[in-house]
Amino acid sequence: MLDTLEAWGHKHLAERIVSRTNLHITLAFLGHRPVNELDAITAATREAAAGAAPMELQPLRYRETRSVGMLALSDEGGAATAVAEDLHTRLERLGVYRREARPWLPHVTVVRFRRRPRLDPPLPILGPFAPSDAAVYLSRLSSSGAQYDVVESFALGG
After folding, report:
1. What is the DSSP string of the chain?
2. Disulfide: which of 30, 70, 126, 155 matches 107 by Cβ 3.0-4.6 Å?
């Protein structure tokens, strides 16, 4: 799947294509957090991942915001949304997360840009897929874009 997504990006997208190693589905974006919260955040993510049901995702549409292009994903059966909701609740209890007003959208960011290019690429032919794990990432910003380092990863469904 990643090979197909990477080739599709190079063919249809402009600007700064997100590298294969940085492709992911964000369950919850926390922004800057103090290091002393990391253990609790990691535990909450581990617990939410352990309770995950099997997921079936597939590309639904290409969408742009002012700085990124993404593949919005369908969530057949709602299992991915259920994991995200579980994690949001756990993180809110810890006081480290505040839900956005709009509902969580399963998506993969595929390109970043300084000026919105208003692309309209065809969807990649991936078919249904299922993520295998969840991870806590440390994001480091640089001039070439964000670099994500895995702090710890957990199998979905335990």
Report:
1. -HHHHHHHHHHH--SEEPPGGG--B-S----S--GGGHHHHHHHHHHHHHTPPP--EEEEEEEE-SSEEEEEEEEGGGHHHHHHHHHHHHHHHHTS----SSPP--EEEEEE-SS-----PPPP----B---EEEEEEEEEETTEEEEEEEEEEETT-
2. 70
Return phi, psi of residue 113, to 5°: -150, 160
Please give the Cα distance from 6 to 126 (Å, whole number).
11
CATH of residue 74's domain is 3.90.1140.10
Is 94 within 8 Å of 41 (Cβ atoms)? yes
Q: What angle do CA 42, 70, 89 make, to 5 degrees?
A: 30
pLDDT digits (tens, 9 = 90+) for 56-75: 999 999 999 998 999 999 99
| Edge-to-edge strand list for the sheet holding 57-64 | 16-17, 107-112, 68-75, 57-64
Q: Which domain holds residue 67?
A: 2-155
For the chain, the domain total comes to 1
